[in-house]
Amino acid sequence: MGISLGRSHVLSNWDPEDTVAWEAGNKKIARRNLIWSVAAEHIGFSVWSIWSVMVLFMPASVYGFSAGDKFLLGATATLVGACLRFPYTFATARFGGRNWTVFSAVVLLIPTVGTMLLLAHPGLSLWPYLVCAALAGLGGGNFASSMTNINAFYPQRLKGWALAVNAGGGNLGVPVVQLVGLLVIATVGNRQPYWVCAIYLVLLAIAGIGAALYMDNLQHYRIEARTMRAVLAEPHTWVIALLYIGTFGSFIGFSFAFGQVLQMNFVANGQSAAQASLHAAQIAFLGPLLGSFSRVYGGKLADRIGGGRVTLAVFCSMILAAGILVSASTFGGHAHGHTSAATMIGYVIGFVALFILSGIGNGSVYKMIPSIFEARSHRLQLGETERRQWSRSMSGALIGFAGAVGALGGVGVNLALRQSYLHSGTATAAFWAFVLVYVGAAALTWAIYVRRPLEVNAPVTPGTPASASLVRV
């Protein structure tokens, strides 16, 4: 059972697989840490994606930035968030889950204040905005540290649910900040973005104080550098990372881009910048909201029927959803330079479907991670305690690494849309690229995780032959 050492918020001898200790009180400790982990990660996601809202407050006539410039802001924040996920993977094991959660919340005050100052002074060049967007990317790293921390708190039988709740609650930060932006635009107009930032300054303070008061550090939890090297040498690591590019990369990339795509089309239909911002904000939050909720169900569904099967179904469905975007962009029709109603309807249906499906896929892919290493651990010549520790450490390392690589998909989404608009004035080429990515991801999932189950060799004991069993992840 976890033992709290006074006011230090340190738990020693934490073993989530000890069912007696779990029922005797450890599950309450785990739940308390999960709640505040979700809160801090949620706000981190909001700050990470805050520029998806700020661009709605930045009419070109005032700030002088093109659509390509604004897509670049989203790509910059996404890139930094993706890169920081790798070191953030080690942070909770090195500094403690509680300690790092407090720090990662407080440091986000910097880009939040910076955003307020920049938007209050239009006419500046692009580079200070890019620097501020890069600092907002610190919020993207929170995902990796939060997920590896919660992975260590929960037993194998509940990891799919716990990781999905933690990630889904964090992902909800994207639609919530967009809802906050909608409320501000609807009440005081599209020229007072500092209200959005002010709200998040308060929320960051609450998250930091709550984590300091109610979270704990695990005394013996470590992710060593050699563990990461071992994970990088594992072929499944690279497969999972590629699949996560398709699911989470789509979710975060579309979260940054959806509102801007809508706004551009509303402007093309003759609406003013203020009207277009309001109408885009009224729709844009819906996709990330549904995608965040569906992640929880994706994890639960994967617990029941297997992550590989769920992931394959997701990618096959995403091919169809991206096909709707291609059709809407290609055949929807444009009258006198205006976007047709059919195109707008197709965009909304296609994007919302992709959000929901990518959310389900996020949950199912992350469920596969602990399942893979739990199965592989039985091939090792280790005692039960050491075997579980190996499985937890490897899973934690891969969770962080896959989160980092997967988020790079969001960079690709924004850069693809930027290039497509710069080259042809439409998003058709980018939509075709998304279709091809989903076809490749579906083929990879089927070939490795669905066509045949993994073979897991049982540990060999003297005098007995090695045995093997087949499991599905």
Summarize the structure in words.
56% of the residues are buried. The chain has a 3-stranded mixed β-sheet. A two-stranded antiparallel ribbon has the order 4-5. The longest helix has 41 residues, at 384-424. Strand 1 and strand 2 (10-12) form a beta hairpin. It contains 19 helices and 7 strands. It is mainly alpha-helical and 473 residues long. It has one domain (3-459): MFS general substrate transporter like domains (Growth Hormone, Chain: A, Up-down Bundle), CATH 1.20.1250.
Mean pLDDT: 87
Total helical segments: 19
Question: Structural class of the secondary structure composition?
Answer: mainly alpha
Runs in which pLDDT lies below 50 for 5 or more consecutive residues are: 1-7, 456-469
Helix content: over 70%
Q: What's the architecture in CATH terms?
A: Up-down Bundle
Number of beta strands: 7
Within CATH, the superfamily carries the name MFS general substrate transporter like domains
* CATH topology title: Growth Hormone, Chain: A
What profile does the largest beta sheet have? 3 strands, mixed
Strand order of the largest sheet: 1-2-3
Q: Give, in order, the helices and strands.
A: EEHHHHHHHHHHHEHHHHHEEHHHEE
End-to-end distance? 29 Å
- Rounded to an integer in angstroms, the radius of gyration calculated over CA atoms is 22 Å
The share of residues in extended strands comes to: under 5%
